[in-house]
Design goal:
Blueprint: H1 8-13, H2 20-23, H3 25-30, H4 36-49, E1 57-62, H5 68-80, H6 82-88, E2 102-107, H7 127-134, H8 142-147, H9 153-160, E3 165-170, H10 172-179, E4 183-184, E5 187-188, H11 189-206, E6 210-217, H12 227-234, E7 243-244, H13 251-260, H14 267-288, H15 292-312, H16 317-326, H17 335-353, H18 370-380, H19 383-395, H20 400-409, H21 413-418, H22 420-431, E8 443-444, H23 445-452, H24 459-472, E9 476-479, E10 482-485, H25 491-500, H26 504-519, E11 525-527, E12 543-546, H27 558-563, E13 564-566, E14 569-570, E15 577-582, H28 584-605, H29 607-610, H30 614-636, E16 639-647, E17 655-661, H31 672-679, E18 684-685, H32 690-697, E19 705-707, H33 708-717, E20 723-724, H34 728-739, E21 743-747, E22 749-752, E23 755-758, E24 765-766, E25 781-785, H35 786-795, H36 855-867, H37 886-900
Parallel strand pairs: 1-6, 1-7, 2-3, 3-6, 11-12, 12-15, 18-20
Antiparallel strand pairs: 4-5, 8-10, 9-10, 13-14, 15-16, 16-17, 19-25, 21-24, 21-25, 22-23
Helix pairs in contact: 4-5, 5-6, 9-11, 10-11, 13-17, 14-15, 17-18, 19-22, 20-22, 20-24, 22-23, 22-24, 25-28, 26-28, 26-30, 28-30, 32-34
Length: about 900
């Protein structure tokens, strides 16, 4: 950083260690952009030294780092080494040449009233002693120097002599301020120094070829409160034109360009970059322009930006503007030197990192670089208050802007490379210090967007990043439509603190509730089964099981859910199950969003306790609403994969898992379950053709009938069968097959050995219209092979009466009696031992123990009894153990029994 802070005294004395860019006249002017004001200064001074007219006493009045010392060094080199100066800067050749000039340099930073100076070989104690020693006439003021009494004008005229003389005084105020505390008789060294300067000014003004140039701070604040001294020193020159400012306006830009870059590349590159940025801004502005005037303003703004980029290259003009117009209002900011130091650090950091950007703009500042941070805080001040802000919200891996980087860059390599969140946050940090006249601190969205746009980045993405940063950043404030960082946490901090109070179970319960809302009204869903028993078996509905967010294949393999039904029992309906696997990343986002929503809602409920303003309450409501939407979106995308078992074609295993990626499916406007259904649409169907059902049933001479219950079981049990969303598809296919004479259908069957026989042939339906609602899919109904059905239809046709054949006596020949029917009771299976000689069951006493897995079949049995004729009395003894919600237990279980039972004895614990 010292490279950009000139030391006039060190250059004057040729002190070792001074950078050649200052000590060597040629190198100095090669690196110097000769501003208009500096050129005028050099011209005026050389004219007077050559005997011409002009001001003899000149004051350089700029803020710290405004080019004062640099201008004094330029004067020094021009009078001491004119040839090298002109060779390096041809613009100097037309300036007057005064010939040999005696030079004296008094530096307020180097000298003080207590420490003798010895650089000349003579020990001096005062400014006048040092001046006389440098000009070789110390004997004239030896006594004045020893006593500390300022000499009069006549002595000073003798010290200066008749030769062209240039006297350079740097940081005068600093010397006088230090000297004020050193007593000199009834006066002090500071007062004597002021008397000396006043006398010197009068002497120099009267000499024909003598010039005195001194530097002074621009404001009381920079003068460390020495307002009186500053005013006195300011009055050393009366004429306005004797006060010079070496660097003005956009000249800082040229100074920086010349100093930091040996050359700026070819003009074609500059023009291409300027045109790209101009076109980008024009496109963004025209998109929002609604009138002809607005469109003309957009074109004008774009053209202006192109011209300014050509002038500012390789810097974005917005970066230089904010430094000059905003930081310029800061006491700590050194306008020229500060710009050089800060931008030098910025350029070096970007060069080291290999960063590639068309321009260096506010969003390109690498605050992770230590030198850049140091230069930044040196210029804007408030290091102690803002260092933690910068670390928390911009440079740390856990900063909110890093989260935004990852979010926006997840699906776009270009956005990932641009690191949009960090880019925007870095720019806001720069804009958080200083302000334009009449404005508050911070930056409007429109100005911020203009400063961070680069080819490949759009306004919409920047606005999205801003929205996300407001949610993620701890110290980012948005007030008065302006963004800025402040050292006090915003509501984000309170929300985060409140969020940490919530347990994982509370948050997960809310997530489950949101997911249940999204799945409400959906049939055949099992949500977050913790074990295979959590997925019902033997339900003729295709089941989609959404596994728990914390599910792990290593802990609970998918095969466990597919093959088991709980308590070691194998799953029967394996062909009626799909597993939807969680995306842990999305569930983390969902948990985060739900946690923020709950926290914001909690803070809203404590608004009086925290004494929130109306603005803060509105912001909390906005946070809650945004978190609710974000949570809903994350939950909707929280499942990434759906798997389904299908028949293995290799024979090594009965099934393989087929996987579908839900993330590749367009999700706009569609709920989670809708996407799952679509993903399964090539494997699970809502209908089946009659021909397919006939083929799968395998009816023929060897299997003439199949009960409808068995048929449904086969569809949900065997991988060879078509997967169906529900059994209604089977009923529809049966109805269609019967109507098309592909199958027969009958309600009421008995078993004869291995055969299934209709109890009443007249109930066989074949080749007639049948609706799905008429099809009974229980064990008491069956489908029949078409030839088998025809046989029964023939038996119910009324036979033609036959005339008995006469016997030998002339009487009628007796006919054999029909065989007695042999039947199996309904529900009997071959080899079950439950068949009997009678075709009627008159009394049935059944005692059975039914576990949870058999409740579905128990329901089917009771439904059959309800539909049959006869007297039914059921005595039940139910023992249910578990943790049941009491209200749900009373309403769902006990109340229906109370309404049905005559004698009720209930004991609950």
């Amino acid at each position: 950083m010292g490279t950009y802070a000139a030391n006039l005294s060190a250059v004057f004395r040729g002190r070792r260690g001074v950078s050649p860019v200052y000590s060597d006249a040629g190198r100095f002017f090669q690196a110097t952009y000769l501003t208009g004001k500096m050129g005028e200064l050099l011209t005026d001074v050389m004219d007077v030294l050559a005997g011409g007219a002009g001001s003899h006493v000149l004051q350089l009045r700029t803020p710290f780092g405004g080019g004062k010392t640099h201008s004094l060094v330029a004067l020094l080199h021009l009078v001491r080494n004119r040839a090298a100066s002109v060779a390096a800067c041809p613009e100097l050749k037309d300036i007057a040449d005064p010939g040999n000039v005696q030079v004296a340099v008094l530096s307020g930073e180097e000298l003080d009233a207590l420490t003798p100076a010895t650089a000349t070989g003579i020990e001096t104690h005062t400014l006048w002693g040092e001046l006389a020693a440098q000009l070789g006439r110390y004997e004239l003021v030896e006594e004045h120097d020893r006593t500390g009494a300022a000499p009069g004008g006549e002595v000073l005229r003798q010290i200066i002599g008749e030769s062209p003389t240039l006297i350079l005084l740097d940081e005068v105020l600093i010397y006088v301020e230090k000297a004020m505390v050193v007593a000199r008789g009834e006066s002090n060294a500071g007062r004597q120094a002021m008397l000396f300067l006043q006398a010197l000014t009068e002497v120099v003004s009267a000499q024909p070829n003598v010039v005195m140039v001194y530097s002074l701070q621009a404001s009381v604040g920079e003068a460390v409160g020495a307002e009186g001294l500053l005013s006195d020193l300011d009055k050393l020159v009366a004429r306005v034109d004797s006060k010079r400012e070496p660097v003005a306006g956009d000249e800082v830009l040229r100074v920086v360009q010349r100093r930091l870059f040996a050359e700026l590349g070819d003009d074609a590159t500059h023009q291409e970059v300027a045109r790209s940025y101009s076109d980008l801004l024009r496109k963004q502005l025209l998109a929002a322009a609604e009138t002809g005037d607005a469109r003309r303003e957009a074109d004008a703004a774009a053209d202006s930006l192109e011209e300014r980029i050509l002038a500012a290259y390789p810097f974005h003009p917005e970066l230089l503007d904010l430094m000059y117009h905003r930081w310029g209002s800061l006491i700590s900011y050194q306008r020229t030197r500060g710009a050089l130091q800060f931008l030098a650090a910025v350029v070096h950091a970007l060069w080291k990192s290999g960063a590639k950007s068309p321009l260096i703009g506010p969003g390109d500042i690498d605050f992770t670089d230590e030198a850049t941070r140091g230069a930044f805080f040196s210029q804007v001040g408030e290091r102690e208050r803002y260092v933690s802000v910068l670390s928390s919200d911009v440079t740390s891996d856990g900063a909110g802007c890093a989260t935004v980087d990852r979010t926006l860059g997840a699906d776009s390599p270009m956005l990932a490379q641009l690191r949009v969140g960090t880019r925007v946050a870095s720019a806001i940090m720069l804009y958080s210090f200083g302000a334009r006249e009449g404005e508050d601190r911070g930056v409007l969205e429109t100005d911020l967007v203009k400063s961070v746009l680069v080819p490949g980045l759009t306004r919409n993405v920047v606005v999205s990043a801003l929205h996300d940063l407001r949610e993620e950043e701890l110290y980012l404030h948005y007030t008065g439509r302006r963004y800025r960082f402040e050292p006090t946490p915003n509501l984000t901090k309170l929300v985060r603190d409140e969020a940490t109070k919530l347990s994982s179970n509370e948050v997960l319960t809310e997530v489950r509730g949101e997911l249940e809302n999204q799945l409400r009204g959906t049939k055949g869903v099992a949500l977050w089964p913790e074990a295979p028993s959590g997925i019902a078996d033997e339900r003729p509905v295709f089941t989609v099981a959404y596994l728990h967010p914390d599910w792990s294949e290593d802990r609970d393999p998918q095969s466990k859910f597919i093959e088991q039904a709980g308590k070691g029992a194998p799953r029967r309906y394996r062909n009626g199950l799909a597993l939807v696997l969680p995306d842990k990343g999305q569930f983390d986002l969902a948990r985060h969003a739900v946690r923020l929503r709950l926290a914001a809602d909690s803070l809203l409920s404590k608004a009086r306790q925290y004494n929130f303003s109306a603005e803060q309450i509105e912001e909390l409501r906005e946070k809650s609403g945004n978190a609710r939407r974000d949570g809903s979106a994350a939950i909707g995308a929280a499942y990434s994969t759906v798997t389904i078992p299908i028949r293995s074609r290799t024979g090594d295993a009965p099934y393989v898992l087929e996987t579908s990626d839900l993330r590749t499916m367009l999700a706009a406007g569609r709920a989670l379950h809708e996407r799952v259904v679509e993903a399964l649409s090539q494997r699970v169907f809502s209908s089946i053709t009659a021909a397919k059902l006939v083929a799968l049933a395998g009816l023929g001479p060897d299997r003439k009938a199949v009960t409808c219950a068995d048929l449904v079981d086969w569809f949900y049990s065997y991988y060879d069968f078509t997967k169906l969303w529900d059994k209604h598809a089977v009923a529809s296919a049966i109805a269609k097959a019967v109507s098309e004479s592909e199958l027969g259908y009958v309600v009421g069957v008995v078993r004869e050995g291995e055969s299934i026989v209709p109890r009443d042939a007249r109930q066989v339906r074949f080749g007639e219209r049948l609706t799905a609602d008429e099809v009974d899919l229980s064990n008491d109904a069956a489908i029949l092979w078409h030839d088998y059905a025809r046989e029964f239809l023939l038996t119910v046709v009324e036979p033609t009466p036959e005339v008995p054949e006469p016997d030998s006596t002339g009487g009628a020949k007796p006919q054999p009696a029909p065989p007695a029917p042999s039947a199996t009771p309904r529900g009997g299976k071959p080899g079950s031992g439950r068949g009997g000689p009678s075709d009627v069951v008159r009394v049935a006493n059944v005692k059975a123990v039914v576990e949870r897995s058999g409740l579905f079949n128990l329901g089917r049995s009771l439904s059959w009894l309800r539909d049959e004729q006869g007297s039914v009395r059921i005595e039940i003894n139910i023992r249910a153990e578990g943790e049941f919600d009491r209200a749900s237990f009373l309403n769902g279980f006990l109340e229906p029994i109370e309404e049905a039972a005559e004698d009720l004895d209930i004991n609950t614990q």
